[in-house]
Amino acid sequence: MKKNSTGLRVRLPALIFALEVVIVVLYVVFVTYDDSANAVLQNNQTKPMENSLYQNYSVFADIQVMIFIGFGCLLAFFRRYGFGGMVFNFLTATFAIQWAILFQGFFQFYHDGKIHLGVMNLINAEFACAVVLISFGAVLGKTSPVQLLVMAMLEIPVFAITEWAVLKYLKINDAGGSILIHLFACYFGLGVTFVLYRPNLNVGHPKEATSYQSDLLSVMGTLFLWVFWPSFNSALTLKGDDQHRAVLHTFIGLSASTITAFALSTILSKNGKISMADVQNVTLAGGVTVGASVDMMISPGAAYALGIVGCIACMLGYKYLSPFLARRLRIQDQCGIHNLHGLTGLISSLAGICAILLATEETYGPSLYQTFSYRAPMEGDPQLEELRKLIPDLEAGLGRSAQEQALFQVAAVIGTIAASAVGGFLTGAILKLPYLASPTDENCFDDELFFDVPQEYDQQEVWSPVLKDTCKTDVE
């Protein structure tokens, strides 16, 4: 029997064309080129190879691979929802980047009346897009493309405002985005899924099953994310030794979490075999747990330990915490983002605070005040002039102590979680509106509802809320 399309013929095109009109108008009125892309500012003294494009394009391209291939393949682990996982990721990511350029540039516009667009703006927009895609994981298979676009449309402004407030007023160190990307995305997504709670799905759903091919595709996404994660963590660090450390620490953390995941997967499984869900998700934990301290002098051994600790927390979260949240707290976290991004983000934030408290000139030399720029002396302080003899381009800071900076980090963690959870809750309330084409419980995790599927598509399963024992989820 052919399934109802839930009214996408009108609703999806209407929403997309309306958004495109708004974006075109706003781009025409407010967006211009930055200095590196503006032909008017080029002359015979311009050195083309010094253009910022050549410094940043490789990182931009790496993050593009993570966004469109890594996330896309990773989300295609359901046997009957591979199209939805990859294609809705494609749709949502493309829109989110377009939308983020405007909202992240708003505060630039506030100062000079224009949003100056360059490759670094695109990288920042990609980070905002990653926030949306992580949150998407919490409601995977249970939302329509219309709902996902509305979710991105609402999440980007909340994220941009939170990011601006935290960076402008709290002024924190968060090179790898553990606070502003992973924690924000996690608790926003949990807020949304809390409101969109479906009690019938707690007893399981046969279409949540994976297949040999879908698991292979999902692992391919994991490998793309794994390989390019050093670019993600190092993109916004200071060029030079800070960025070098970020690449080293990310690789070490990922390596540690990967081999630990294989060990824990066999220990915790009922039959002593490796779970593909663990390979797809838990192996990535180390990339998050080193994020907040990724550019600091934490030592390679500490990065390795963080990878192990993050892996353990993530694994235990999948095995025990996710089922508890679904049964007791009405939080159906479909992809376990609380484990891979929430728990590990909290561990990373704590590690970053410890690294800030332990940072001294003995370990960093004068570069202490570059890595921790807000600890640099204020303008007019004689110490600043002495430091500038060693580092001529050193910028004035706020003169914070290590303890003061650590307190601001704590405030950022609390504030980010609160803002994201409230934003997610309100967004979830909007997504519950009846005309956003939400799938029924029976039609969740099913491509046939939204796509023309090939003839070999399996149509044998019939949904029933009592088929608990026949279901397999990604966390079992």
UniProtKB/TrEMBL annotation:
Domain of life: Eukaryota
Subcellular location: Cell membrane
Ranges that cross the membrane: 12-33, 53-78, 90-110, 122-141, 148-167, 179-197, 209-229, 249-269, 281-298, 304-321, 342-360, 406-431
Ammonium transporter AmtB-like domain location: 24-433
MF terms (GO), sorted A to Z: ammonium channel activity
GO (cellular component) term, any one: plasma membrane
Main localization category: membrane
Membrane topology: Multi-pass membrane protein
Function statement: Functions as an ammonia transporter. May play a role in the elimination of ammonia in the gill.
Name this protein carries in UniProt: B Rhesus blood group family type
Lineage: Eukaryota, Metazoa, Chordata, Craniata, Vertebrata
